[in-house]
Amino acid sequence: MASPGPNISSSLKETRTFAPPAEFSANAHVRSEAEAQRLRDWAERDPDGYWSTQAESLQWAKRWDVVCDWTGAPHAKWFVGGRLNVSANCVDRHVEAGNGDKVAILFEGEPGDARSLTYAQLLVEVCKFANVLKSLGVVAGDRVTIYLPLTPEAAIAMLACARIGAVHSVIFGGFSAEAVADRNNDAKSKVIVTADGGWRRGKVVPLKANVDVALAKSPTVETCVVYNRCDSPVTMTPGRDVWWHEAMAAASADCPAEPFDSEQPLFVLYTSGSTGKPKGVLHTSAGFLLGVSLTHKLVFDIKDSDVYWCTADVGWVTGHSYTVYGPLANGCTVVMYEGAPNQPHEDRFWRIIEKYKVSVFYTAPTAIRAFMKWGDQWPKGCDLSSLRVLGSVGEPINPEAWMWYHEVIGGGRCPVVDTWWQTETGAIMIAPLPGATVTKPGSATKPLPGVIVDVVDRQGNPVPAGEGGFLIIKRPWPSMMRTIYGDDARFREAYWSHIPGAYFTADGSRKDADGDIWIMGRVDDVLNVSGHRLSTMEVESALVGHTQVAEAAVVGKPDDLKGESIVCFVTLKQGVTATDELKVLLKAHVAEEIGALARPDEIKFTDSLPKTRSGKIMRRLLRDVAAGKVSTSDTSTLEDYSVLAKLREEDE
Ligand code: WT7
Predict the structure, then answer these.
(1) Whose CA is nearest to atom 3 of ligand 1?
(2) 71-107, pLDDT tens digit by residue?
(3) Topology of the domain covering 18-56+436-522
(4) How far is the CA of 422 from the centre of ligand 1 (A)?
(5) Pocket flag, ligand 1, residue 317 (CB < 6 Å)
(6) What pTM did the predictor assign?
(7) For residue 428, how far is its CA from the centre of ligand 1 (angstroms)?
(8) Third-level CATH fold of 530-651
(9) From CA 299, how far away is CA 217, in angstroms rounded?
């Protein structure tokens, strides 16, 4: 792990500030910094009081006895003794309140097909699919894999699991068959829900074909439900595969929502850590739902009339928290778009905003940088006047992209909320409150009420303002992960062993003189490619899995568009010739093993890798080589100095 210090301390000197527009503040949930500070003070002084007051916003079948039980730290229990049903909170209660005709989901497919579902219609679909799952033998606690395109069926399947207390494991449609099999096996999934395919850049991504390969290696999966999205040919295995539409036609729409314990597991979501094996981050019910609904309301200042669009796929945590659970718990109208942002043209997103009058838009810096590259003419050709709040998530947003977003997309009138959080935190932790916070391009500003963070050195001592350190969270919060599925020792080790008593985020950051937080990026061996975490180890093990590769080291290289690009240093087995064709093959091999997202940008063949005497590959040196920088970092532990010189030569 690199230490944040002079090496990664930010040279960023951003001094621009943006106060919320007066009319925005006047109508906001939180109207001033003073009010925001009062909330932070209250939550810090009396966390139980703060969180229990907020939890009144959920619908409970039985009220809790204890707000937070932290006696089993690092395992928290929230709203102990309480019972609720997550799907009833996201759907039924809005229908019961007379809002059944309000649109829940505005769906647009990549080919241009559109469909909307009201809350009443969503309720019918969720109940039916819950009954389908029951008829397949799924009971509370069972795991269900969901590998679908971004269509309403993904939300329906997730909510149906929640309704019956089953635990979903959503896998992003860009992951390969291998990745699906690994995750099926780790979670011991009983059922997988997929589609023939999904549309992406005018082509069908063959999801079912991937599942067929995965299921040959997934012994626990008994049934595969297939949604027909693209009318593309698939092979159905009798006795194992069933069509979504056939099962739904036979299912009853009557499925009462049974209340579950607050701590009933809701989902597992796999994310990259610094060892090869993905971590199944486990989230439970009540605390997660409170975290996502409250932050969705406050950070985006959500009102009943909003049309809200988060562009993330449901395969990532952002899709779980801010496309499905948070917004639906708030009874919001959510836009869902299946495909690529430049299909058929580079203005697709802006056309969608214009068509549906989107008022709150949430996307990633990597997308924003692509839009900048494509040119202002695309957004300028559309009416974006419906927008009122713009959000960013996934990686640090560079001030230039922030300014472009603010001016070109937001017309200078919409607050930009840069939201810092992680799969593990479940919900947004650090972000502006758009009616209250003075924003600074590149800063996620201040922690939300109840989130107690600090920036510390390796020993856990707070570092002075302006200096880089590790970002930690000092108190439990409702939407925190509960464990790594099936590997509690790793949960303790990865998050709770670095700084005693605190949650370790693995992000470097600094706090400025105003107390605003600037995130500097990951301090472990994890890449952030287009806002998605990828483990360098996972890419390395894919490479070493190839018959011609002896050893591999993978590092990130700063990339204007993707945040980081993937650079692989590869040593070949004896007698293998380094050719450009082999580079192409290796790139394809990684994409096959992990998914297209992990396709290496560069492969560099080398005779040896820089190592410590104990044999550890010194990735930070390789990072410098990849970036074409002369290494200023410590090389005293390097075993063979000539290796580094050679690598640099090879790079020329
Ligand atoms: C890592 C978490 C949270 C949903 C998407 C990614 C980076 C996330 C920001 C931000 C700077 C950010 C961090 C974090 N990150 N948001 N606003 N500013 N960095 O979820 O895959 O769990 O990745 O993404 O490095 O630790 P994830």
Answers:
(1) 422
(2) 999 999 999 999 999 999 999 999 999 999 999 999 9
(3) Luciferase; domain 3 (2.30.38)
(4) 5
(5) yes
(6) 0.91
(7) 10
(8) GMP Synthetase; Chain A, domain 3 (3.30.300)
(9) 43
